[in-house]
Amino acid sequence: MDRATNDIPAVRRPTSRRRSLGTWLALAFSLLSIVLTLLLVEVVDIAATGQVETSIGHGLRELSLQTADKLDRGMFERYREVRLLAQRRDLAPGNATPADRRAVLDAIQDTYGFYDWIGMAGADGRVQVAGRGLLEGADVSQRPWFRNALRGVNVGDVHEAVLLARILPQQNGEPRRFVDVAFPYRDSDGKTIGVLGAHLSWQWARAVERSVMAPLAARGGRVEALIVSSAGVVLLGPKELQGQTVDLPSFQAAQRQDSGFLVERWPDGHSWLVGYARSKGFETYPGLGWTVLVRQTVSDAYAPALRLRERALWSGIALALLVSVVGVLVARYITRPLGQLVREAGRIRRGDSVRLDSSNSTYVEVERLSETLNALVSDLVQGRAELQGLNATLEARVEARTAELERALVAVQASEQRVGAIVEAAQDAFLGVDLRGLVTDWNSAAERMFGWKRSEVLGWPMAELIVPQRFRASTVRAIEQYRATGHSVLLERRVERLMINRQGIEFPIEMTAALAGGSDGVFFAVFLHDISGRKKVERMKSEFVATVSHELRTPLTSIRASLSMLAEGMAGELPPDVAQLVNLANESSERLVRMVNDVLDLQKIEAGGMHFERRPQLLLPVAEHALDSMQGYAGQHGVRLALECSEPARDLAAAIDRDRLVQVLTNLLSNAVKFSPRDGTVTLVLAEHGEWARLAVRDQGAGIPAEFQARVFQRFAQADGADTRQKGGTGLGLSITKSLVEEHGGRIGFETEAGKGTTFMVDLPLVQG
User: Fold this and answer.
1) Residue 743 vs residues 536, 612, 666, 732, 737: alpha-carbon distances, Å
2) What residues pair up with 179 in beta bridges, in sequence order?
3) What share of the chain is helix, strand, coil (3-state, %, to 5)?
4) Identity of the highest mean pLDDT range in 155-164, 185-194, 330-339, 531-540
5) 524 by DSSP, 3-state: which?
6) What is the CATH number of the domain that holds 577?
7) Alpha carbon separation from 766 to 148, 158, 643, 657, 662 (Å, rounded)
């Protein structure tokens, strides 16, 4: 009976074209979500993309307006400065010697480095006096700037150097180009007796262009700025266009309506989004009619709009996935009775004794199928009981043996799993290094960081894999030192180092190393954390500070020059109260300029941009020069300066940059003078201190308060609070001094005692003089 039943072949129905109810429902929801996605992308493309593209165009227009405004304001400063110089009585031939007049012009050139030449020519066109003595005696009567100034035209457009081309070197491989500013100067009767002229380096315009474009360039994309003369000649821009004449729609539009943006095709065959603006002068400066074009390729400019489309597309895809998931859930709910029947049938197949219950089903087909399966189950239960009886003994033995093996395996793997889980879960790279310097462990984070697989590095010297060539010898020595002494300064400390990956690219890391013990002995456990992102942020911060400080220095220099001329009486004798205010403003502007210079020095040191020319030389002449330069300042405070140097110390030498060491000593001397009592003495001591040459500055002040001593070398740190400050200063001098000393491989410290004064000590490595 049973055999006959089992031999009846099962009836199979074709299923190649049939789909489940849940599948059809899921497909319906998916198609609906795809349609909604297409509609969403189309709406975003029509409504939002146009607005984004217009916003991008306005951004380029604003950049061109900013550049034009900076050009006009910068030219206005030079225009006003040269005009004020031409009005100074002390520069007239009869009121000062040529040397005094030349010194004033030298100071102007030193104050603003973009003056390539500044000089005064007599009515006959002969240069009487000039900054740094350039072209003195030369005939400039036929130069346009001289003739135009006599006719009342005080500004000349960009041109290449003529007389100065043989004297001044080229800049960045290009001929020198100038913008001329010139004004006639008169005697006390108002008669024109000559022309004061200045050649402003065209590199000034490049600096303006970089200051506007640098933030945008840092974000990526090809953005270029062009400065075009009123005749359509490219004065500044890409090398392939410089000196070319352009007659583009953007240039023509700028001549008509001042500013705007448009898309146009350039001679290079590319389509560019161009923002344009025309300079219009500033206050008394009439302007030269320059046009500023800021261009970006259409593909780069409209990249945000493309990203907006992509975001809309991905959002639609996500929506489609979400709707599909919801569709699957709904389909599962609808087909739940069928699913329940399938699960119960699966339990029967696994040997469970269950009865299919279809009383809650809403489908007739499910109810009939349940009844048929229940009849089959009753027959299968009896056969399964017989089979279980035969296999019971065998299963018991297999289960017991399996349990024993599992316990043994768990015991063996437990230790390895604990260690492996800890190492692999670490977000930082982990290296195990034995006392020979060979790699013993290497986690997946290390594989990602350095590009070496674990199987490739085990047993290899760690220094050859990840340490740059120039540091490998010192790394090997450090490991050997630990083997010999059992001590290393790198253990249990967080230090920064440069590492190298498989491609030979260096990058900064933060390293923590400790000793660990294992079955094979002691080894170094090293965790490495990539700090490239942090270093990039610090570099951006430093660049930002430098940019802001540089932008402050230009207007501050003009303000200081103007206030200085007023204080010196250029505008005549001022009422006492006005003169007091002018002097106060002049002193404040000088203090601001010093602060900006200190900030720029500090930023250069941090960014590694400060140039050092170190060479072995005697220290005594440097100390004497620093004392001589501070005599005037000390005299103002009623303080005497003294030098102590024994006969053997006169021959002490060190590898130094003379100017930077003078800066260190003048900083320390000025602080000592500032905090010394009137009639006190500040002493500069030069002496030998072991293997070091020591330069010490000793004052007779009140000493450094105990609560401030830990912050002496911090930036902007000052012993007197901001609300009680009496001595002035920026609080950057000692921080800069410490950095300069350390750049020389030296060290700095101090000793202080309340009421008896303070001594700052600078130690430099000795060399043979």
Assistant:
1) 22, 8, 17, 17, 10
2) 200
3) 50, 20, 25
4) 185-194
5) strand
6) 1.10.287
7) 61, 53, 20, 14, 17
Nearest to 44 by CA among 391, 272, 307: 307
**Of 369, 401, 422, which residue is a domain's last?**
422
**What is the spatial distance between Cα 85 and Cα 108, in angstroms, rounded to a whole number?**
10
Which residues contact residue 472 at a Cβ distance below 8 angstroms, ignoring those fewer than 6 apart?
463, 464
Do residues 103 and 314 make contact, with C-beta atoms less than 8 angstroms apart? no
Residue with tokens 């043979």: 768
262 in the same domain as 130: yes
Regarding whether 677 and 561 lie in a shared domain, the answer is no
Report residue 745 as tokens: 């491989």
Q: 397 and 356, same structural domain? A: yes
Question: Is residue 525, in this structure, part of any structural domain at all?
Answer: yes
| Amino acid sitting at position 720 | D
Same domain, 372 and 413: yes
Return the CATH number at 449: 3.30.450.20
Residues recorded for the chain: 769
Distance CA 610, CA 660 (A): 10
Total structural domains within the chain:
5
Is the per-residue pLDDT at 473 higher than 70?
Answer: yes
Residue 697 CA to residue 626 CA, distance in Å, equals: 11
What CATH number does the domain containing 653 carry? 3.30.565.10
Evaluate if residue 194 carries a pLDDT over 80: yes
Do residues 704 and 759 make contact, with C-beta atoms less than 8 angstroms apart? no
Model pTM score: 0.41
Q: Give the closest residue to 712 by CA, choosing from 727, 730, 734.
A: 734
- Amino acid identity for residue 128 in this structure: Q
Sheet holding 291-297, edge to edge: 234-236, 223-228, 291-297, 271-278, 259-265
Q: What is the pLDDT of residues 578-590, one digit of tens each?
A: 777 777 776 666 6
Q: Tell me the two tokens of residue 53.
A: 């593209």
Please give the Cα distance from 311 to 190 (Å, whole number): 71
Q: Give the residues across from 448 on adjacent strands.
A: none
The closest alpha carbon to 87, from 568, 611, 594, 604, belongs to: 568
Amino acid at position 336, single letter: R
On whether residue 407 sits in a domain, the answer given is yes
Closest residue by Cα to residue 424 from 448, 445, 447: 445
373 plus 460 within the same structural domain: no
Contact criterion met (CB below 8 Å) for 343 and 53:
no
Decide if 13 is inside a domain. no
Cβ(597)–Cβ(550) below 8 Å: no
Separation CA 126–CA 137 (nearest Å): 6
CA torsion sign for 336, 340, 342, 346 is positive
Q: Strand, coil or helix: what is 613?
A: coil
What pLDDT is attached to residue 12? Answer: 44
Pair (185, 72) in one structural domain: yes
**Is residue 61 domain-shared with residue 205, that is, in the same domain?**
yes
How many angstroms from the chain centroid is the CA of residue 244? 35
User: Mind listing the pLDDT tens digit for each residue in 392-451?
Assistant: 676 666 677 777 767 756 754 565 566 566 666 667 888 889 988 899 889 988 899 999
Helix spans in 88-182 (H): 98-111, 144-150
Three-class DSSP labels, 639-691 = CEEEEEECCHHHHCEEEECHHHHHHHHHHHHHHHHHCCCCCCEEEEEEEEECC
Confirm whether 16 is domain-assigned: no
Query: Mind listing the pLDDT tens digit for each residue in 708-763?
Result: 777 787 766 565 544 334 454 556 778 888 888 888 889 999 999 888 899 999 99
> Residue 17: its pLDDT value, please?
52
Dist CA 310 CA 151 (whole Å): 62
Domain that holds residue 481: 426-530
What is the DSSP annotation of 107-121? Answer: HHHHHSTTEEEEEEE
203 and 243 in a common domain: yes
| End-of-domain residue from the set 404, 422, 440 | 422
Contacts of 478 (CB under 8 A, 6+ apart): 488, 490
